[in-house]
Amino acid sequence: MRRRSPAALLLLALALAGTVEAERRLAVDGGAPSWLLAVGRLAIPTSHREDGRHRHYNERCSGTLLAPPEGGDARLVLSAWHCLEYYTDLSREISFEITDSRGHALRRRARAVASGGGMAADWALLELDTPIPADRREAAELYPGTLAPGARLAMAGFSGDAGLGAGGDHLTYDPACRLTGASGPDRLTDCLAYKGASGGGAFHDGRLVGVLSRGDSGGLSIYVPVRRFSAAVERRLR
Protein backbone atom coordinates (compact mmCIF):
# COMPACT_ATOMS: atom_id res chain seq x y z
CA MET A 1 0.00 0.00 0.00
CA ARG A 2 1.28 3.43 -0.91
CA ARG A 3 2.02 5.61 2.11
CA ARG A 4 0.62 9.14 2.16
CA SER A 5 2.93 12.04 2.91
CA PRO A 6 2.37 14.09 6.10
CA ALA A 7 1.09 16.96 3.95
CA ALA A 8 -1.48 14.70 2.28
CA LEU A 9 -2.62 13.37 5.65
CA LEU A 10 -3.06 16.92 6.93
CA LEU A 11 -5.18 17.87 3.92
CA LEU A 12 -7.32 14.75 4.43
CA ALA A 13 -7.84 15.59 8.11
CA LEU A 14 -8.88 19.14 7.26
CA ALA A 15 -11.32 17.89 4.65
CA LEU A 16 -12.92 15.47 7.12
CA ALA A 17 -13.09 18.16 9.79
CA GLY A 18 -15.07 20.34 7.42
CA THR A 19 -17.85 17.74 7.34
CA VAL A 20 -18.40 17.80 11.12
CA GLU A 21 -21.22 19.94 12.50
CA ALA A 22 -19.66 23.20 13.69
CA GLU A 23 -20.25 24.28 17.29
CA ARG A 24 -22.78 27.09 16.98
CA ARG A 25 -23.91 27.18 20.58
CA LEU A 26 -22.92 29.77 23.13
CA ALA A 27 -22.73 29.57 26.90
CA VAL A 28 -25.29 31.65 28.76
CA ASP A 29 -23.23 34.19 30.68
CA GLY A 30 -23.39 37.85 31.62
CA GLY A 31 -23.47 38.92 27.97
CA ALA A 32 -26.38 36.68 26.95
CA PRO A 33 -29.97 37.96 26.58
CA SER A 34 -31.63 38.07 30.00
CA TRP A 35 -34.70 36.07 28.89
CA LEU A 36 -32.51 32.97 28.57
CA LEU A 37 -32.35 32.89 32.39
CA ALA A 38 -35.95 31.63 32.31
CA VAL A 39 -34.49 28.20 31.43
CA GLY A 40 -33.59 26.04 34.42
CA ARG A 41 -32.57 22.49 35.21
CA LEU A 42 -34.76 19.62 36.43
CA ALA A 43 -33.65 16.53 38.37
CA ILE A 44 -36.37 13.88 38.31
CA PRO A 45 -36.12 10.68 40.42
CA THR A 46 -36.75 7.90 37.95
CA SER A 47 -37.30 4.16 38.17
CA HIS A 48 -38.04 1.66 35.43
CA ARG A 49 -37.41 -1.95 34.54
CA GLU A 50 -34.66 -2.63 32.04
CA ASP A 51 -33.24 -6.05 31.08
CA GLY A 52 -35.18 -7.62 33.93
CA ARG A 53 -33.80 -5.25 36.57
CA HIS A 54 -35.05 -2.04 38.13
CA ARG A 55 -32.93 1.02 37.44
CA HIS A 56 -33.03 4.04 39.76
CA TYR A 57 -31.48 7.32 38.65
CA ASN A 58 -32.10 11.05 38.31
CA GLU A 59 -33.39 12.04 34.88
CA ARG A 60 -31.80 15.37 34.01
CA CYS A 61 -33.83 17.63 31.77
CA SER A 62 -34.46 21.32 31.22
CA GLY A 63 -37.52 23.43 31.97
CA THR A 64 -38.67 26.99 31.32
CA LEU A 65 -40.16 29.21 34.01
CA LEU A 66 -43.35 30.81 32.68
CA ALA A 67 -44.35 34.41 33.29
CA PRO A 68 -47.73 35.11 34.94
CA PRO A 69 -50.01 37.17 32.65
CA GLU A 70 -50.09 40.16 35.02
CA GLY A 71 -46.51 39.88 36.25
CA GLY A 72 -45.83 38.89 39.84
CA ASP A 73 -44.30 35.74 41.26
CA ALA A 74 -43.72 32.78 38.92
CA ARG A 75 -44.64 29.21 39.82
CA LEU A 76 -45.18 27.26 36.56
CA VAL A 77 -42.43 25.41 34.68
CA LEU A 78 -42.79 23.96 31.19
CA SER A 79 -40.87 20.81 30.27
CA ALA A 80 -41.25 17.65 28.16
CA TRP A 81 -43.55 14.74 29.01
CA HIS A 82 -40.87 12.12 28.32
CA CYS A 83 -38.71 13.58 31.11
CA LEU A 84 -41.43 12.48 33.56
CA GLU A 85 -42.35 9.19 31.88
CA TYR A 86 -40.74 7.01 34.56
CA TYR A 87 -41.42 9.24 37.54
CA THR A 88 -43.61 6.86 39.53
CA ASP A 89 -42.63 7.30 43.18
CA LEU A 90 -44.43 10.50 44.16
CA SER A 91 -42.79 10.45 47.59
CA ARG A 92 -39.50 11.42 45.93
CA GLU A 93 -39.06 15.09 45.10
CA ILE A 94 -38.53 16.66 41.70
CA SER A 95 -35.98 19.48 41.91
CA PHE A 96 -35.91 22.63 39.76
CA GLU A 97 -32.88 24.92 39.78
CA ILE A 98 -32.61 28.28 38.07
CA THR A 99 -30.22 31.23 38.14
CA ASP A 100 -31.98 34.33 39.42
CA SER A 101 -31.59 37.89 38.15
CA ARG A 102 -28.80 38.46 40.70
CA GLY A 103 -26.77 35.50 39.49
CA HIS A 104 -27.64 33.24 42.44
CA ALA A 105 -28.87 29.66 42.14
CA LEU A 106 -32.44 29.12 43.36
CA ARG A 107 -33.80 25.63 44.04
CA ARG A 108 -37.43 24.65 44.37
CA ARG A 109 -39.40 21.45 44.71
CA ALA A 110 -41.80 20.83 41.84
CA ARG A 111 -44.75 18.58 41.10
CA ALA A 112 -46.28 17.61 37.78
CA VAL A 113 -49.74 19.11 37.26
CA ALA A 114 -50.54 18.59 33.56
CA SER A 115 -49.10 16.97 30.45
CA GLY A 116 -49.78 15.86 26.91
CA GLY A 117 -49.67 12.25 28.12
CA GLY A 118 -47.20 10.80 25.61
CA MET A 119 -44.63 11.41 22.90
CA ALA A 120 -47.42 12.42 20.53
CA ALA A 121 -47.89 15.50 22.74
CA ASP A 122 -44.52 15.80 24.47
CA TRP A 123 -45.12 18.62 26.93
CA ALA A 124 -45.59 18.82 30.70
CA LEU A 125 -46.32 21.50 33.27
CA LEU A 126 -44.89 21.51 36.77
CA GLU A 127 -45.79 23.73 39.70
CA LEU A 128 -43.19 24.96 42.19
CA ASP A 129 -43.80 24.53 45.92
CA THR A 130 -42.69 28.14 46.48
CA PRO A 131 -43.09 30.77 43.73
CA ILE A 132 -40.05 32.71 42.58
CA PRO A 133 -40.47 36.43 43.37
CA ALA A 134 -40.84 38.84 40.48
CA ASP A 135 -37.78 40.85 41.54
CA ARG A 136 -35.54 37.78 41.43
CA ARG A 137 -36.51 35.99 38.26
CA GLU A 138 -36.65 36.03 34.51
CA ALA A 139 -39.70 34.23 33.15
CA ALA A 140 -40.76 33.46 29.60
CA GLU A 141 -43.76 34.97 27.87
CA LEU A 142 -45.57 32.81 25.33
CA TYR A 143 -45.35 33.87 21.69
CA PRO A 144 -48.92 34.37 20.46
CA GLY A 145 -48.43 33.97 16.72
CA THR A 146 -47.58 31.26 14.20
CA LEU A 147 -44.13 31.15 12.64
CA ALA A 148 -43.40 30.37 9.01
CA PRO A 149 -40.48 28.20 7.82
CA GLY A 150 -37.31 30.24 7.81
CA ALA A 151 -38.18 32.12 11.00
CA ARG A 152 -35.16 32.76 13.17
CA LEU A 153 -35.01 30.97 16.53
CA ALA A 154 -32.86 30.53 19.61
CA MET A 155 -32.95 27.22 21.48
CA ALA A 156 -31.70 26.84 25.05
CA GLY A 157 -31.20 24.02 27.53
CA PHE A 158 -28.79 22.11 29.73
CA SER A 159 -27.24 19.86 27.07
CA GLY A 160 -25.33 16.93 28.54
CA ASP A 161 -22.48 16.87 26.01
CA ALA A 162 -18.92 16.78 27.30
CA GLY A 163 -18.03 20.00 25.46
CA LEU A 164 -19.74 23.33 25.99
CA GLY A 165 -22.57 21.74 27.99
CA ALA A 166 -20.07 20.30 30.52
CA GLY A 167 -22.19 17.22 31.13
CA GLY A 168 -25.33 19.26 31.73
CA ASP A 169 -23.80 21.72 34.19
CA HIS A 170 -23.84 24.72 31.83
CA LEU A 171 -26.83 26.39 30.21
CA THR A 172 -26.13 26.76 26.49
CA TYR A 173 -28.09 28.03 23.51
CA ASP A 174 -28.02 28.04 19.74
CA PRO A 175 -28.51 31.75 18.99
CA ALA A 176 -29.23 31.71 15.27
CA CYS A 177 -31.02 28.58 14.11
CA ARG A 178 -34.19 28.43 12.02
CA LEU A 179 -37.58 26.79 11.72
CA THR A 180 -37.29 24.42 8.76
CA GLY A 181 -40.63 22.63 8.53
CA ALA A 182 -43.17 20.44 10.32
CA SER A 183 -43.41 16.90 11.64
CA GLY A 184 -47.15 16.43 12.08
CA PRO A 185 -48.23 19.06 14.63
CA ASP A 186 -44.65 19.61 15.83
CA ARG A 187 -41.96 21.83 14.33
CA LEU A 188 -38.59 20.93 12.78
CA THR A 189 -35.54 23.15 13.25
CA ASP A 190 -31.83 23.13 12.48
CA CYS A 191 -31.04 24.04 16.11
CA LEU A 192 -28.15 22.25 17.80
CA ALA A 193 -28.88 20.63 21.18
CA TYR A 194 -28.03 17.43 23.03
CA LYS A 195 -29.63 15.05 25.52
CA GLY A 196 -30.38 16.99 28.70
CA ALA A 197 -31.73 19.97 26.77
CA SER A 198 -35.08 18.16 26.41
CA GLY A 199 -37.77 20.33 27.98
CA GLY A 200 -35.79 23.47 27.19
CA GLY A 201 -37.17 26.41 25.26
CA ALA A 202 -37.38 27.46 21.63
CA PHE A 203 -37.58 31.26 21.42
CA HIS A 204 -38.40 33.86 18.79
CA ASP A 205 -37.78 37.55 19.52
CA GLY A 206 -37.24 36.67 23.18
CA ARG A 207 -40.58 34.91 23.64
CA LEU A 208 -41.26 31.21 23.98
CA VAL A 209 -42.57 29.46 20.86
CA GLY A 210 -42.27 25.87 22.05
CA VAL A 211 -40.69 23.17 24.20
CA LEU A 212 -37.80 21.04 22.93
CA SER A 213 -38.94 17.44 22.51
CA ARG A 214 -36.34 15.45 20.59
CA GLY A 215 -33.53 15.59 18.04
CA ASP A 216 -30.42 13.94 16.64
CA SER A 217 -27.70 15.97 18.45
CA GLY A 218 -26.46 17.02 15.04
CA GLY A 219 -28.53 19.97 13.90
CA LEU A 220 -32.07 18.55 13.91
CA SER A 221 -34.23 19.50 16.89
CA ILE A 222 -38.01 19.19 17.13
CA TYR A 223 -40.20 21.30 19.37
CA VAL A 224 -43.84 21.19 20.46
CA PRO A 225 -45.39 24.58 19.59
CA VAL A 226 -47.12 26.79 22.15
CA ARG A 227 -50.58 26.39 20.64
CA ARG A 228 -50.59 22.70 21.68
CA PHE A 229 -50.42 23.50 25.42
CA SER A 230 -51.41 27.17 25.76
CA ALA A 231 -54.91 26.31 27.04
CA ALA A 232 -53.43 24.20 29.87
CA VAL A 233 -51.03 27.02 30.77
CA GLU A 234 -53.83 29.58 30.84
CA ARG A 235 -55.95 27.39 33.13
CA ARG A 236 -53.07 27.02 35.58
CA LEU A 237 -52.19 30.72 35.55
CA ARG A 238 -55.69 31.88 36.48
TrEMBL record:
This is Serine protease. Residues 1-22 form the signal peptide. Gene3D superfamilies: Trypsin-like serine proteases (2.40.10.10). It comes from Pseudohaliea rubra DSM 19751. Keywords: Signal. Coiled coil: none annotated. The keyword Protease does not apply. Transmembrane segments: none annotated. The keyword Signal applies. InterPro entries: Peptidase_S1_PA, Peptidase_S1_PA_chymotrypsin.
